[in-house]
Structures are given as structure tokens and as C-alpha cells.
Here is the input.
Amino acid sequence: MKSKVRTITRRDFLRAGAGAAAAAAVSGLARPAGAQETGEALPRAKVVLVRDREAVRSDGALNAEAIQRMADQGVAALLDEADAATAWRRLVRPDDLVGIKNNAWANLPTPEPLVAGLRQRITQAGVPAEAVRVDDRGARQTLAHCTALINSRPLRTHHWAAIGGCLKNYVPFTPRPSDYHPDICADLGKIWSLPIVKGKTRLNILVVLTPLFHGRGPHHFDRRYVWPYGGLLISQDPVAADAVGIKLLEAKRRLHFGEERPLAPLAKHVRYAETRHHVGVSDPERIELVKIGWQEGILI
Here is the structure.
């Protein structure tokens, strides 16, 4: 199967909406305050969506070889390099202490084949094996002294935050996660300014191999609401990755339920991560989405 790289237009990105203005209203995404008044250039972001029809087998098992291939393609495309090895040498240095922040939620964890592949590429870039750590709930202790972080977790709907994505994955770095629950987790972006993580994240991988697009309460999981999408969303901007993830889940919900069931107005932590906390880009107009590989059922 030949991989195809294509940058979508604004029209492509919001084609499921009723037009640009309506889509912006539904999404709740906004430009940073004061940007129009000052006339300053707004930041932009790049997200790579890479898919492979072989990544999820017919029995639901994951194909480690396909996942590694996807990660390699995505990282190389993100950094405009000819191969993954060159890209990884730009992401990490031999003297880095690298932490892979995964997600251990039992129903939909960060896939072990992906974690194993990340370890391999990091060590091949010159980082000693003993200088690569992996953790989730103990990250505040085990990953505190890391100089580089790789953030990876599956995309799913979430009872409190509307979505569980890259931004929310750093909650274990905080001493009191409950401090970030008020107003439907509106200020998750604030975590990214804490000294324990600030400026350390080299790569975000939002796993969309089998995303969960609907839930009914805390810790809810129902296999009727996952599907074999076979993808990875890769970016150096966690906000942009989550913004694209929202569009994907909304498209799947629209297809499944036959009506609009928007998530973006509830997942306002993604918008606020840009407008309040200046972490990244949430506005689809300023996100370059590059698509690689399997196009059938791509939805966005």
C-alpha cells in the first residue's frame, strides 16, 4: 500500500459542519484574545495523521509491525525528514533522560507495541537504555528529573473533561489532580507550565487505533463505542493534537448516532490551553493536518 501525504484545507477540515461560521460556533474554538486587535501573527501547528488498515487485526489484536511503521512514517513527516532515525536524532540527545508518559487505564491503555517501538527508536538515537523510563500514575516521582518527555495515550471520551487526550495525560505530574477538576477540567493547560514538565515535551502521540467515542459515566467503557480506526495523531503541540482528536470523535458520533453530539464546547480545556495558558494551537484554521496512508473511513 502506497502512503499518500496530503495537507487538508480549511474546507476539508470543517466539511462536516454547516459552513465555516457554523462550525466555529459548534466547536467553541477561538482565537487568542487581542490577536486581531494587535495584528500580530498567530502561531500555527502541524499534526500528522497516519493510518494503516493492518494496524488492528480482524480479531481486535494490534499489529506491532504496522504500529512501528506508522510511528516511523508519522515522526519523519512531522519533522520533514526522509527517515525516522534522522527525525529522532532531532527529538532527543544522547545525554537526555527520557520519560515516556503513557496511560495505564486498563480498558484502553497506551499499547505496549507502541511503547516498545518508542524505546527502540530513542535508544537508536543514542540515549542509553537505562536512561529511558516509562510511567503513568507514578510520573510525579519517576519522571520528575527527565530532561525530555514523550507523551502518548489513547483518545477517548471522558466523563469530566469531555475527552481524554494529550493535555489531560499530564495530570499525574500534579500533587493534587482534583485541583484541576473544577469547571469540567477547564484549566488542564495550566499543568503544562509546572516546572516538572515545562518545556520538556518533545513529542505527543495521540493513539487513535481504537478510540472510544461515547461514554455514560466515570470510568465507563463499552466495546460498542470503539472502532478500528487504525491511526496515530502525532504532533509537537498537544493542544493541536487534541483539537484534531475532538473533530475525529465528533465525526464518528455524528455517523453513529445520526445527529450532532458535539464535544468541543464541553472540552473547553483545549480552547483554554491556548487562550488562557498559551500552550499550543486550538483553532483548526491554524492547524496543518497531514494525512498519510489508509484513507478509507478517515472521517476528517
Remarks:
- The radius of gyration is 18 Å.
- The chain is about 30% helix and 20% strand.
